[in-house]
Amino acid sequence: MDDSEAEKRVRGKGRGSNFFALGHEVKDQLWSMPTTNRLNLVIAYLVLLAGTGSDHRLTKWSAKACEEYTGLGKPRAKHAIGELVASGLVKRTDASSRMMPQYELPPLAIDAEPVFLPVALVTGLSGEASMLRRVRETGDAMALRMLIDLYGLISLDATHGIPLEHLRGGLSQNDEPNARKLADVGAHGVWGVTRGSYRGGGGEWASFHRAKAKDSSVAWKPFWERLDLLKQIGAVWYEPWLFDSAATDAEPIIPLDPSGYYPVAEPDDEARLTRSALDAARTLVGEEREYLFERADFYVPLTLHRQTPAYREVARLRVEADTPGRRLSWKRRRIIIEQYQQAFDQLRHDALEGRFDRPMRLGSTLEPAL
Fold this sequence. Notes:
Blueprint: H1 3-9, E1 19-22, H2 24-30, H3 38-50, E2 58-59, H4 63-70, H5 74-87, E3 91-92, E4 103-104, E5 115-118, H6 120-123, H7 131-138, H8 141-153, E6 167-171, E7 179-185, E8 188-193, E9 198-201, H9 216-232, E10 236-243, E11 252-255, H10 269-285, E12 298-303, E13 310-317, H11 324-352
Antiparallel strand pairs: 1-5, 2-4, 3-4, 6-9, 7-8, 8-12, 10-11, 10-13
Helix pairs in contact: 3-4, 3-5, 4-5, 8-9, 10-11
């Protein structure tokens, strides 16, 4: 059997996974090739791609899957797939028939990491309409592009969100410092951190979503409207974090509880950690200075040598691709939460015993995922 015959028999090595990969070259082509409906075209390609095996090449998903998962009717789906075939981006295999279509998609380039997308983006989470269906219902093709762009920007640090240099929330007006030191106690400083209501963005990716206008507020208007649309349909959400500075390349310190200090029936790890930080801060300062805990939203003790931290809201995708990178980020997050939980508990214990000279210990360097 020669190589060409072997290729024809490849169905897609393995059953696939919970994610699929979109090459950047193909992504660019989807947004530049001629079409009568850009949104339908891109949706159809993503549905086909979600039905591939682990090699992301062959799929038996077709117009029927488009209709089932995204609500795109078969006539429009068939037309969009026909445009993909006519362009040469998608090919019908020799085994394809009218009743049982099978398509071959282009191979992934090996010189650049693709955009990893969750299959659930197409199929939906249990009992919910898929995000792809929701985006289609908005009628905004550029909203879909923004969503794909955001998946391509995800950081593999503990936040598993969009890097601050590209998108950030929780800023103070004019990006003024939103953390101030309330007290120095022994080896620690107690910081009060305030939520901001402003946001910022940047990078080459944002240029596709801005208008051409000299007035910055006018130029950025479609960008923020589109981002708000993705937030409205539940595709994007913001998670509060404390970072070690206000710089866009700052390191994340700890995730914070979005609900603040309001008691909840079953607090999660973030809520417990945020409460532990407050308890440790209060114990350090003492009851005679309780008035210090009146104006900020969060209170966190940090060692004295630390620079001024900053509150930031990290944009995250609600439906995440279960990739090895995502699992590594999850492990890093777990280690951070566990280390700081232990550190705050120990700090409070030391303060209750009148010992204020021992700095927090956060354990060893993060270990890589196995």
